[in-house]
Amino acid sequence: MSSTAPQDFGQPLLLDDYVAVQQPITTTSPSLCAVCHIAASLQRCSNCKNIHYCSSQCQACDWPHHKLLCKQFVSSQGARPSSSHRRALYMPDKSSRPFFIWLQYGSNGYPIDRQNFFPGTPDADLKTIAFHNRFLPYWIQISYDSNPSGRSLNKNECAKRLTEDAPGAAKWSGPLVVLAYSAEEGLEKPALDVDTSVLGPLRDYLRLRCEYDGPVFVEQPQERWEQADLMRILGGETK
């Protein structure tokens, strides 16, 4: 199955107004269960030791998807080609199984060899869409072929599998490359290593974009200040 339609997943809109939301976790936050997101116990995958769960039930629920990356993650340990390489996730269009790849980064924080995973795609046609899951301490960025010229692209079999054939799953065409960036340093630094914890939030996001075509918003970290605190921060005096 193929498509000649252009793709444009847009850019998320930032929420400016204060909304009382649960604050996202940070790199120093306690580990959360990959399924229900409550504080995890010491239980984690005995093979890769990379993902945490609160119970055996949650681990069993996650296994059909986690097993896609578990062994790959173990084999990728110690296989970094150089200090400028970071692990990314590749979702090929002709296979239903995602796999880890290594991308090399320049000093500007951008991958040098990402184009190699989009054969036949002009560099100008590559677009990215990023999202932040509050249960992960980093941003996830998806690179995709925007296809403005209407070339024939295969429907992405990985996206179809991960979204379990959700309505609209066929909108993801061509290969996808998934990167992770620090929520604190942003895109100006080389990416972080993608690991197995990315798969659940990625699956949820792909499914969301399959089922929803409206504007996409991103929450910004926010705090509500009392007047005295606000005046102190701004250098004013309280009355």
UniProtKB/TrEMBL annotation:
The yes or no answer to whether the keyword RNA-binding is present is no
Pfam families for the chain: zf-MYND (PF01753)
Q: Which UniProt keywords apply?
A: Metal-binding, Zinc, Zinc-finger
Establish whether keyword Zinc-finger is in the entry: yes
Domain (MYND-type): give its ranges: 33-70
SUPFAM superfamilies in alphabetical order: HIT/MYND zinc finger-like (SSF144232)
Q: Which organism is it from?
A: Ascochyta lentis
* One Gene Ontology term of the molecular function aspect: zinc ion binding
* Name of the molecule in the record: MYND-type domain-containing protein
